[in-house]
């Protein structure tokens, strides 16, 4: 069982930086896959970045070179460092945790955070 809570959103000027945090509860955080999604008004929710339990990362093309995802298992926290922010990055950012349970770890579970607003505007 994992529950997540996002924080760190706010208002930032174009070209600025922001770091989002996702704090997770539960003793199995170290074996979860953690993802950041975002959803802008009138648009579908889209994957921004992900990180596996082993630290492998992946990014959407529109954030490559600008965003970085990381995790600190000792703190049960995943981060999204956002640099060179653009107005089109404005969205609600959601943290998602995925893990597996059952005898053979074949049953998947997921947990969404409540979201944190990021607004990029001058």
- Name the helicity range: under 10%
The major β-sheet equals: 7 strands, mixed
Number of strands: 11
Q: Number of DSSP helices? A: 0
Termini, distance in Å? 41 Å
What's the Cα radius of gyration?
14 Å
Textual characterization of the structure:
The protein is 0% helix and 54% strand. The protein is built from no helices and eleven strands. It has strands at residues 3-7, 10-12, 18-25, 33-39, 46-51, 57-59, 67-72, 77-82, 91-101, 107-112, 116-120. The strands form two sheets. Strands 2, 4, 5, 6, 9, 10 and 11 form a seven-stranded mixed beta sheet that branches. The chain has a four-stranded antiparallel beta sheet with strand order 1-3-8-7, with no helix packed on it. The model has no long low-confidence stretch (mean pLDDT 96). The protein is mainly β and 122 residues long. Strand 9 (91-101) and strand 10 (107-112) form a beta hairpin.
What are its keywords?
single chain, 0% helix, mainly beta, seven-stranded mixed beta sheet, 122 residues, four-stranded antiparallel beta sheet, 11 strands
């Amino acid at each position: 069982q994992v529950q997540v809570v996002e924080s760190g959103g706010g208002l930032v000027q174009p070209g600025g930086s922001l770091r989002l945090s996702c704090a997770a509860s539960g003793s199995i955080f170290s074996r979860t896959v953690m993802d950041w999604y975002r959803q802008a008004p009138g648009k579908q929710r889209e994957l921004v970045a992900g990180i596996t339990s082993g630290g492998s990362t992946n990014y959407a093309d529109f954030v490559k070179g600008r965003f970085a995802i990381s995790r600190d298992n000792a703190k049960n926290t995943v981060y999204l460092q956002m640099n060179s922010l653009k107005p089109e990055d404005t969205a609600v950012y959601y943290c998602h945790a995925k893990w597996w349970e059952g005898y053979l770890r074949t049953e998947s579970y997921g947990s969404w955070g409540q979201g944190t607003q990021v607004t990029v505007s001058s």
